[in-house]
User: Which sequence fits this backbone?
């Protein structure tokens, strides 16, 4: 077995083993359990980075042959021989950036819990669940078998439900404040978790039907063999793409299937929101690229205009709702609806430019929105409220926190030179290049949505940073804890690096993307 194959196994086994080890630590050693979980997350992150080492020339070198068909590392073992199912894992330029992002955000979230322990429940349970979620997300990005992809896709559901229901809502407040609040696991956080679970289950049923439609028609579940629509008739591809698109639209989420997202983000603890926005939503857009575009390419050309219309609707609706939103985490959640609309618009074009824009937009959204939720959680932890009316004057009371918040907001609105610019700008460019009145109209509307994004983020900064300090912030400690710097600094740096050097994402994905869209244009 090669080093790359061992790495694929280890990158899934290590967080799973870490979750078991953390759960095994006695409750009285909660602090030690959180540190142990962070160590496992750090090891997993290192392994995700090392997956980029391959080939005779080392980092990011391509194999001879079509990169979309030949992953950098490939592990293909018998799994259920009677059903011809295989344990098939692989990584290439499409999945690698998301694999590394998953490892990084999980590490930062686990490290954040070391200094910000939950008020009512042991933090070891939260850290263990984060590691289980990481296992499911990494498995989704690495799976090259449709049934295996579905199983990893489902691993995330119950742990995320538990994170929102058990550690969300007011349970995320400081202990001195939360002691006087209702017991965690009740009230709005449980309702939000239940809504998340129901929507996700609905999408899972559609995904399962789509998987068996393809497997039955083609006689194989191997994604590599199915890439390009091999063995699938036009009718099967259109039916399967419809099922896949609806399933992944729930997870992304695409308007009008987005209504679970604001509630889940508002009630989730800070680390839950970071993982949810940073990488869990990307399971939907990644699936749409890897399976929707890769396995059923004829469906993209057929349903692309409909997806594009819904994507632009998400951009506009998300921006308009944000302009009227008065709760901090809820505003950031609705902004995710709009940003993911740009990602889906790029995918809907079915072009190399559009899908490349979607890939870099995925990574940028994970970095920037993860940072925004970290900052929002830190601010809510200090002020004990997320209402914008109660958060004015941050610039006067904590100028460093206000500066970081301003940077994250500017990055989110897509300022050139920062990570958010490339995905959104080139999604619009891809729509223009498709040609025709419909695509040109959608491109113009998406650009208007981008302008509205700037409007609501500037409104957010005016409400939070400027003006006299409100009572909630009047006595705010201006210092930023070391644990917060540790969690926030890598994301600030990445927002700059990806913005200035987008080839870090686009360069390694270029050839695999071109191989995928070749089948779409047939």
Assistant:
């Amino acid at each position: 077995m090669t080093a790359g194959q061992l790495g694929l196994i280890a990158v899934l086994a290590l967080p799973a083993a870490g979750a078991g080890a953390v759960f095994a630590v006695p409750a009285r050693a909660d602090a030690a359990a959180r540190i142990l979980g962070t160590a496992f997350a750090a090891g997993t992150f290192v392994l995700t980075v090392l997956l980029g080492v391959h080939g005779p020339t080392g980092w990011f070198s391509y194999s001879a042959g079509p990169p979309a068909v030949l992953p950098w590392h490939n592990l293909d073992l018998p799994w259920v021989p009677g059903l011809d199912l295989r344990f098939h894992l692989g990584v290439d330029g499409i999945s690698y950036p998301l694999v590394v992002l998953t490892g990084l955000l999980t590490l930062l979230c686990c490290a954040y819990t070391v200094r910000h322990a939950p008020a009512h429940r042991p933090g070891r349970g939260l850290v263990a669940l984060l590691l289980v979620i990481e296992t499911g997300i990494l498995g989704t990005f690495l799976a090259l078998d449709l049934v295996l992809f579905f199983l990893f896709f489902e691993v995330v559901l119950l742990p995320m439900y538990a994170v929102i229901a058990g550690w969300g809502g007011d349970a995320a407040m400081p202990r001195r404040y939360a002691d006087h609040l209702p017991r965690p696991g009740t009230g709005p956080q449980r309702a939000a978790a239940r809504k998340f679970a129901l929507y996700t289950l609905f999408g899972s049923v559609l995904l399962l039907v789509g998987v068996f439609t393809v497997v039955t028609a083609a006689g194989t579940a191997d994604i590599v063999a199915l890439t390009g629509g091999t063995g699938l008739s036009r009718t099967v591809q259109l039916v399967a793409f419809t099922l896949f698109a609806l399933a992944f639209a729930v997870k992304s989420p695409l308007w009008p299937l987005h209504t679970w997202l604001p509630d889940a983000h508002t009630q989730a603890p800070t680390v839950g929101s970071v993982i949810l926005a940073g990488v869990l939503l990307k399971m939907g857009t990644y699936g749409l690229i890897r399976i929707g575009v890769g396995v059923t390419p004829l469906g993209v050309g057929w349903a692309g205009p409909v997806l594009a219309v819904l994507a632009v609707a998400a951009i506009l609706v998300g921006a308009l709702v944000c302009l009227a939103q008065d709760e901090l985490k809820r505003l950031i959640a609705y902004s995710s609806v709009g940003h993911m609309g740009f990602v889906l618009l790029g995918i809907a074009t079915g072009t190399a430019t559009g899908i490349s824009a979607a890939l870099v937009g995925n990574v940028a959204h994970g970095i920037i929105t993860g940072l925004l939720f970290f900052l929002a959680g830190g601010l809510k932890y200090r002020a004990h409220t997320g209402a914008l009316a109660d958060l004015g004057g941050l610039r006067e009371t904590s100028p460093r926190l206000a500066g970081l918040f301003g940077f994250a907001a500017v990055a989110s609105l897509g300022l050139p030179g920062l990570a958010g610019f490339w995905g959104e700008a080139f999604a619009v460019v891809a729509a223009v290049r498709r040609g025709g009145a419909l695509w040109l109209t959608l491109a113009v509307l998406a650009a208007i949505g981008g302008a509205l994004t700037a409007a609501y983020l500037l409104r957010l900064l005016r409400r939070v940073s400027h003006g006299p300090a409100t009572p909630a912030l009047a006595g705010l400690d201006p210092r930023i804890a070391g644990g917060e710097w540790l969690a926030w600094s890598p994301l600030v740096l990445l927002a700059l690096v990806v913005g200035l050097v987008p080839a870090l994402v686009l360069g390694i994905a270029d050839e695999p993307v071109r191989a995928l869209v070749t089948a779409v244009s047939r």
Observations:
- The CA atoms of residues 352 and 513 lie 6 Å apart.
